[in-house]
């Protein structure tokens, strides 16, 4: 699947992999500058990076305050992603200047930060997946096992979330997904992959979850058609039936609502 690196059974989103690689590059540059200038640049790079990460998270939470107000504890769910670039960059630069002052190391570390941020922006733009058509073959079913051809959804934007009852991140995000789906103007279909209706019904009953947005794909045909075995995977599809965005892994309420707003703007 586009935007994902597969290492055996492990799926890693390429944007996160790039961000981690560039973070390590920044720390490495800090160590190199420290050795060349006999300064504290290496230690300062670590401190600045830590402060920058916190600032990036705080910035993201502030930008999406209404979503986090509903589930405040998700502020700490860092594995879901959600960092704002520019608050993090600004905080990192400020810490470098404050701790190193007017030294050659300061200019070198700030310059390396600028280069790596530019690389992050360029890589994100270059690797952004292009819109592609949603496969038209798979036929889903509702909980009453009535068939729902995927083509019947064309003509309006909609969201598809691929999940399974055995998948821990799927189970964690499911109550939130059902809650957002219930109040969303854009249809959100929670498509179970590879399990029969009785297993899905038992899971929903045990967790006290509504089945209104649940769809069944007992053969996993949709996941196979789009080329992913990763779950959960959330697809944002425009009115022309094109996949405009893919989120691999657990998604936060803030990220889901932001993507829904973007999808609505694309089709308005």
From TrEMBL:
Subcellular location: Cell envelope
Gene3D superfamilies in the cross-refs: Glutaredoxin
Pfam families: LGT, Redoxin
GO-annotated molecular function: disulfide oxidoreductase activity; phosphatidylglycerol-prolipoprotein diacylglyceryl transferase activity
Keyword annotations: Cytochrome c-type biogenesis, Disulfide bond, Membrane, Redox-active center, Transmembrane, Transmembrane helix
Any single GO BP term: cytochrome complex assembly
Occurrences of domain Thioredoxin (ranges): 119-265
Family annotation (SUPFAM superfamilies): Thioredoxin-like (SSF52833)
Residue ranges crossing the lipid bilayer per the database entry: 17-35, 44-62, 82-100, 107-128
Main location: other
InterPro entries: Lgt, Redoxin, Thioredoxin-like_sf, Thioredoxin_CS, Thioredoxin_domain, Thioredoxin_ResA/DsbE_sf
GO cellular component annotations of the record: cell envelope; plasma membrane
Recorded coiled-coil stretches: none
Protein name: TlpA family protein disulfide reductase
Organism: Sphingobium yanoikuyae
